[in-house]
Amino acid sequence: MISEVAPSTEDELFVLESCHSTWIFDTERLRFRRILKGLALDAHAATTAWRQYFGLELDPISESFVVLLNAEGTRLLRSWRHVEHCPQCGGNQTGELSLDDLRGATLA
Description:
The chain is mainly beta. It has one domain. The chain has 1 helix and 8 strands, in the order ββββββββα. It has a 4-stranded antiparallel beta sheet, with no helix packed on it. β6 (55-59) and β7 form a beta hairpin. The termini are far apart.
């Protein structure tokens, strides 16, 4: 059961870490992008384009989250937050990105 909707933040960016991606949500413009981790590419080459979303639901029990891609909620993406002793990846998260990499990716 999804029990929480992601709140807006003061800086309009909400960041979630999954095992293989950093998810950046622009809560003001209702758009998101992913930065793939663990690739031998620079951050811009490993970043998806901004995509519109219609909702973000978080489940703090399972650490799953759902990105609603249309207003009806019939198209969605589901992933899991990476946590310590992660059941999704066994704790083997791919490389982290620096704040400069994240800032650069949000400007593109």
